[in-house]
Amino acid sequence: MKNTFTQSMAWLHTWAGLIFGWLLFAIFVTGTLAVFDKELNHWMQAEIPATPVSQAAAAQRAIAYLQAHEPQAGNWGVSLPTERSPGLRVSTGDRRHGGGVQLDPGTGEAIAVRDSVGGNFFFRFHFTLDLPRNWGIFVVGALALVMLAALVTGIVIHKKIFKEFFTFRPNKGQRSWLDFHNASAVLLLPFHLMITYTGLVIFMLIYIPAGVDALFAGDNRAYFQAQGNSRLEQPRGLSKQPAEMVDVAPLLAQAEARLGPIAGFNIRNPNTAGARIEIRPELGNRIALSKGQAMVFDGVSGQLLSDVSEWRAAPLTQRVMVGLHFAQFGGYPMRWLYFVCGVISCVMIASGLVLFCVKRGRKYAAAEVPGHRWYRLAEVCNVGFVAGLLLACVGLLWASRLLPVELAGREAWEVRAFFGLWLLALLHAGIRPPRRAWVEQLGSAALLCIGLVAFGGLEDALRLGVAACALVLGVLLGLVAWRVQYAQPAVRNVKAGRRVEAGA
Amino acid sequence: MSRSPTWLQILSRSSAALLGGYAFSYAATACLARLLPLSPGDAVIVATLPTFIFYTLAILWAFASRDALRAWAPLAVAAPLALVGFWPQALEWLA
Fold first, then answer.
1. Considering only A4-18, A63-77, A211-225, A231-245, which range has the smallest mean pLDDT?
2. Is the ipTM of this complex over 0.90?
3. A321 touches chain B (CB under 8 A)
4. Do B45 and A314 touch (CB under 8 A)?
5. How many helices (H) and strands (E) does chain B have?
6. In terms of pLDDT, which residue wins out, A397 or A240?
7. In chain B, which among 19-48 make CB contacts under 8 A with chain A?
8. Residues 6 or more apart whose Cβ sits within 8 Å of residue A503
9. Cα–Cα distance between A246 and A244 in angstroms, integer?
């Protein structure tokens, strides 16, 4: 677009960064929060107790409950209590369609738990923007591609990458914002590149199905069969004959010895001669994402019918890349590392957005300058999409606790609260002067974060972690708001100049 | 081309980046999957993993090239690549 290669790359970085940066910020923030999705689920459903109980005992209570209430169902699903998710949930039908009943893991009685989108909302928003799933995947994929292009153009235009890494000039207005944007980008460049690229790899065959089209004539089923992902055939005739089922506890122990911690199990055709017990590992037992893997046992004899498969080098590479994005491995230290890196990514995007306006502020600040209206739009969107989104995210947590428990369609109302708050923040940014809008929105987000502590639940380690993290983030947001309120570099420079004059 | 208005240039280059880039990375992946000496299941994965590198390069090309016509070069390159990738299908279609 411009004369030299560097100039054209800078042009692309600036404009693609501005226009897509607002949504990219939302994707990165919700992705960072989704690192702790299960902890947030637990926080948002206050009724679930955190009783320490062995998985075998919980499994037997779940089966006793299903035996009493759903003996005829074609499929029983059980999610066992784990380190990150202490609830015990049973369901009939398919696991991915949700629903089901929460049981008290200690007694096996059903407990009434409020409906809540939970931390799962952030997870879903992160890869679909809450659009219909297939549309969302493509929109987010396109945004991720822009992110990748912005990272590469950022490297190209940033010539003195090593020297400037050690440069930070605080309290210098535009200079400081640029230094901050550069430092946060360079410091975590490997993370930014890794998280963006592996995010694209998750749905790569949906985005670019060229390989399947060329080698399998576009037949996805043939492709999956070539990967050895064919399912065990269900025994038709046997599933009509009633039969006594085997005890599940020894099978859980056997599976745990082989796979590591267990997330739950399914029993297909329970109480028949064709019963099958499928035991799934937790996702975080290894780096490669083990989604869809299970050990299958005969439900009557307890015999192992099918073990988890070993992956060949190519599928393993893909699964490891996807696993690097899902961040389920390595326990809590790794989770915190991903969270902190994610926060820095968000800060990098936000500082780039702010930099765009700071750079042009002097030129377009006056209302009569041509182009002022566009500048003002960028300014309003910056406040609404950065501070406003943070406000909406913490607002969702408040909604999960404040909405009446018996409200019909409660989950939908939580989502409405999220988007309603976001919209209000955009409107608020439109009618207030920019600096006031920043301070007011960041300040209220900070107060809402700190206020989460008031909802209690502090005797439970997981909920205490959520509250403590919210407290720290709230204090940090408050500091940012305070800084925006009182930092006035332009004015201060004038004053400093006067003082020098007075002294001379 | 240099005399066309700025917004038209931006539109042309953006579509070259988005559509030309898609065609290029699609065709390059198909070609790579066909040529790699691996079993079909592995070849699909190994050929698709680098596809977003191709796409990113095509986007940069679309905005870096000297004139707006050259920005569409990846689309032109996509045709022979796709021909290699879909060679058996092409032969079948001719016969």
1. A231-245
2. yes
3. yes
4. yes
5. 6, 0
6. A397
7. 22, 25-27, 29-30, 33-34, 38-48
8. none
9. 7
Query: Which phi-psi region, left, alpha or beta, contains residue A459 (left: φ > 0; alpha: ψ -120 to 50)?
Result: alpha
Confidence of residue A236 (pLDDT cuts 50, 70, 90): low
pLDDT beyond 60 at A482? yes
Domain map (residue ranges) of chain B: 6-94
Give the C-alpha separation, A407 to A417, whole Å.
Answer: 14
Residues from chain A that touch B42, judged by Cβ atoms under 8 A, are 312-315
Q: A73 CB near a chain B CB, below 8 Å? A: no
Dist. CA A171–CA A179, nearest whole Å: 11
Report residue A115 as tokens: 């409906």
- C-beta of residue A276 within 8 angstroms of C-beta of residue A304: no
b/e burial code for range A23-43 (CB count within 10 A of at least 16 → b): bbbbbbbbbbbbbbbbbbbbb
Sorted by where each begins, the domain ranges of chain A are 5-41+121-187+327-494, 50-113+229-308
pTM of the model: 0.91
Question: Is some CB atom of chain A closer than 8 A to the CB atom of B85?
Answer: yes
Residue among A313, A256, A301, A246 at smallest CA distance from A279: A256
Q: Is A2 on the interface with B (CB under 8 A)?
A: no
Residue A94: predicted pLDDT: 59
From A401, A480, A488, A415, select the one nearest A441 (Cα to Cα): A480
Query: Phi/psi of residue A246, each to 5°?
Result: -75, 155
Does A312 lie at the interface with B, CB-CB under 8 angstroms? Answer: yes
Among the listed residues B34, B2, B28, B20, the one whose alpha carbon sits nearest the alpha carbon of residue B76: B20
CA A458 to chain centre: 24
Q: Which of A203, A213, A216 best probes binding to B when mutated, by most B CB atoms within 10 angstroms?
A: A213
Q: Rounded to a whole number, what is the distance in Å from the CA of A110 to chain B's nearest CA?
A: 45
Say yes or no for a CB contact (<8 Å) between A215 and B52: no
Q: Cα A473 from chain centroid?
A: 17
User: How many CB atoms neighbour CB A260 within 10 A?
Assistant: 13
A423: number of Cβ within 10 Å: 13
Question: Both ends of chain B: CA-CA distance in Å?
Answer: 41
Q: Is A201 in the B-facing interface, judged by CB distances under 8 Å?
A: yes
In the predicted structure, residue A36 carries a pLDDT above the cut 90:
yes
Chain B CB within 8 Å of residue A155 CB:
no
